[in-house]
Design goal:
This protein has one domain: Rossmann fold (3-Layer(aba) Sandwich). A 5-stranded parallel β-sheet has the order 7-6-1-8-9, sandwiched between helices. Strands 2-5-4-3 form a 4-stranded antiparallel β-sheet, with no helix packed on it. Helix content is about 30%, strand content about 25%. By secondary structure, the chain is α/β, with parallel strands linked by helices. The two termini are about 20 Å apart. It has 5 helices and 9 strands; from the N terminus they run βββββαβαβαβαβα. A hairpin with a 2-residue loop joins β3 (about 30-35) and β4. InterPro entries: HAD-like_sf (IPR036412), HAD_sf (IPR023214), HAD_SF_ppase_IIIC (IPR010033), MDP_1_eu_arc (IPR010036). Pfam families: Acid_PPase. It comes from Alteromonas gilva. This is Magnesium-dependent phosphatase-1.
């Protein structure tokens, strides 16, 4: 029996752009204004264009999805996940400051899988390198996640 892949996503500059800064550099509260989510500076908090399609694809194909984010403001990230209506796509959310290794150890335990059964997307090369050393397939997304890169990584 083949093990189901666990697909893990970073947040900042991988799934979303928080007005050109990381979530912990934004200025809550976040509010919906004219069908957009903005912070108190008026900075636009948005998902990258292909992210809704990617998350829907994962759900339709019954992939286990998780988040691994090193933010120092996990509550802000969780609030934004809810406002963007994507929090329900993730079976696990490891959102706390520190090394991504800690995130992946927790995910390995929670899913009962091996590191080689995980696929990880992140915009920061230091995280890609760190997680790759565990045996995770890590994909660098320097300009945010898009459909083409996602589909190529599943192969």
């Amino acid at each position: 029996m083949q093990t189901q892949k666990v697909i893990v996503f970073d947040l900042d500059f991988t799934l979303w752009d928080c007005g050109g800064v990381w979530i912990d550099c934004s200025q809550p509260p976040f509010v919906q204004r004219e069908r957009r989510i903005v912070d108190s500076r008026g900075a636009y908090m948005r998902l990258y264009d292909d992210v809704p399609r990617i998350l829907a694809y994962c759900k339709e194909n019954q992939y286990h999805c998780a988040l691994a984010s090193r933010t120092t403001e996990p509550d802000w990230a969780k609030t934004l996940l809810g406002l963007l209506d994507i929090d329900h796509y993730f079976h696990q959310q490891q959102i706390f400051p520190g090394s991504k290794v800690a995130h992946f150890k927790a995910l390995k335990k929670a899913f009962g899988c091996e590191y080689q059964d995980m696929l990880f997307f992140d915009d920061e090369m230091r995280n890609i390198e760190e997680v790759s050393r565990l045996g995770v397939t890590a994909v660098h997304v320097p300009e945010g996640l898009n459909w083409t890169l996602f589909r190529e990584s599943l192969i």
